[in-house]
Amino acid sequence: MLMSVDADLMRVLADPLRLRIVSLLAEETLCTTHLIEETGAKQTNLSNHMKVLREAGVVETEPCGRFTYYRLRADVIGRLAGQLADLAESARDTAENKRACP
């Protein structure tokens, strides 16, 4: 049975900067300073995007002294990947199905 794709999560990841942040965090846990350096984003802009990612459950934080480190939640990304894989499998399985026009 086809699972529905998490539209809210897709919307969160559709922003190019947030997708870049997620890609960076897939490689390593980074603090705000690192993310600013890597993305070229202004601190306030980056903070706003990190808030969206945190609220969506995509990243989790780890305080470390005066810095905040961000870690990607692989389970959330994995769940979305599974939903997309199910969608692709359904498309392959039903590629020959065609509804007749009235």
Termini separation comes to 28 Å
Mean pLDDT: 92
Which structural class fits the helix and strand makeup?
Answer: alpha+beta
Shape, principal axes of CA atoms? elongated
What share of the residues lie within helices? 55-70%
Number of helices: 5
What portion of the residues fall into strands of 2 or more residues? 5-15%
Strand arrangement, major sheet: 1-3-2
SSE order, as H and E?
A: HHEHHEEH
Radius of gyration: 18 Å
Main sheet: strands, sense, barrel = 3 strands, antiparallel
Provide a compact summary of the structure.
With 102 residues, the chain is of the alpha+beta class.
Question: Could you walk me through the main structural features you see in this protein, from its secondary elements to its overall organization?
Answer:
This protein is of the alpha+beta class. The chain is 59% helix and 14% strand. It contains 5 helices and 3 strands. It has helices at 7-13, 16-27, 32-39, 43-55, 74-93; strands at 30-31, 59-64, 67-72. The chain has a 3-stranded antiparallel sheet with strand order 1-3-2. A hairpin with a 2-residue loop joins strand 2 and strand 3. It is elongated, with a radius of gyration of 18 Å. It starts with 6 loop residues before the first helix and ends in a 9-residue tail after the last helix. The mean pLDDT is 92.
